Amino acid sequence: MRRREPRVLLFLPPELEQEWDWTERYPAQPEILSYAEHVAHRFDLRRDITFDTRVTAATWRGDHWEVGTDGGERITATYCVFATGCLSRPKDLDLPGVGTFAGPTYLTSSWPHEGVDFTGRRVAVVGTGSSGVQAIPVIAEQAAQLTVFQRTPNYVVPARNGPLDPEAQRARKADYRRFREEASHTLGGLLGTPSTVSALSVDEDTRRSAYEQAWAQGGLTAFRQTYGDIALDLAANDTAARFIRSKIREVVRDPDTAAALGPTNHPFGAKRPCLDTGYFQTYNKPTVRLVDLQKTPLTEIVPGGVRTTEELVEVDDLVLATGFDAMTGALLAIDIRGRDGVRLADAWADGPHTYLGLGVAGFPNLFTITGPGSPSVLCNMMVAIEQHVDWITDCLAALDGRTIEPEETAQEHWTAHVAEAGTKSMIMRGNSWYLGANVPGKPRVFLPYVGGLGPYRDTCDEVAAEGYRGFRLTETA
Ligand code: NA7
User: Fold this and answer.
1) What is the pTM of this model?
2) Residue 125 contacts residue 148 (beta carbons within 8 Å)
3) What is the rounded average pLDDT of the residues 177-197?
4) Of the options 3.50.50.60, 3.40.800.20, 3.90.1150.200, 3.90.1700.10, the CATH number for the domain spanning 52-89+327-474
């Protein structure tokens, strides 16, 4: 058994954001990886990280946590912070016969680091969420034949990715701190002010030209912020949904394919809208075909390909972009046991119960970064993570070795508030991972907190200022 000596790291200094230059609006994986490596090197973080290790268990031992790993290690710690990620555990594959496929099966969530060459291959992609929408155009560049199996079409807005303008970057950096401070108090953790104008208060031409402008600019924020009631009012939302369907019809030449790609069974924003680079254009390639699983459901994967109620599509490679067991999956994959040996999986059998998405009653000295019940995936993740890390860091300093645990009543009050806030959201009108609806058998619960990052930050700060209201603080025996 070993105990790690804590090393206090000060907040990352502002020089970091000044010295690093991003090249694109949406940098690709290699650039993000080199940034992470730069930060690790710059602040000598590697010595504090144990790589290639899976945490399998965490058990509360009365005054400390004992953490077990797949390497058989047991590590003790006074406090345990789970930063296990909201979208890090792929959902279990729920396609009949998936294990029988004779060729290679690739999961978008665990893509081979060395890349995959699809040149000359017949490829099937199952799933058209963000991962599928991003992967499909890239795979189509190489594949001899690509068949996309779509169960639910998604709303997709152009990313308009491209190089960052050096002048714009200089201007942003000149006032970086202020921009970041401003963003950290908005609802979405992003700069920009949503319009207060209703989409229903303007005529069709005005609305169309506003949507066209946001479409040309690219990115979800610009589009979502065009009118103030897109996220609130079904009729207003429908104006955005109709606009997107019309853009699909403009691009996709085959009318049946265009119709199948247009979402009609959920409002815009009920599932996470996607950003694309050439997604709809891909369906104009003679080598690409869409199979609409709403018309011809997928029945099974067989050694030679994918079978639907109508046909067998023979393929060489199978790509599964089928999503994640979001928000709770990675935590519950660890055997976490709190006070009196209670398993977190049992405490959350009917869905997660948390106080502020930061702690769980019955699990002392445990914190979650962007846990269920916090804004997390509904805002800029980086800003949400920073807010939690800052709050927990201050809390640990204030605790000075004392034990902290949410009070049951505060937790139930917060959990009810998260559910109640969710009822007004468009998200309730779709079957998404936000609700756990993508995983068979998972309780249907509104997982993130829809109240907005700025107000949530204020609540967390008030809780801390009032001596951690709603938490029980006790001297450690
Ligand atoms: P998503 O958004 O959960 O998308 C998964 C896709 O896979 C979606 O189209 C699903 O259809 C489809 N799917 C899942 N299971 C099946 C089965 N059994 N049969 C057919 N189709 C299936 O995951 P992503 O990885 O794309 O994105 C996750 C988040 O990462 C994203 O929201 C962003 O926040 C970033 P369905 O819609 O369930 O009918």
Assistant:
1) 0.94
2) yes
3) 92
4) 3.50.50.60
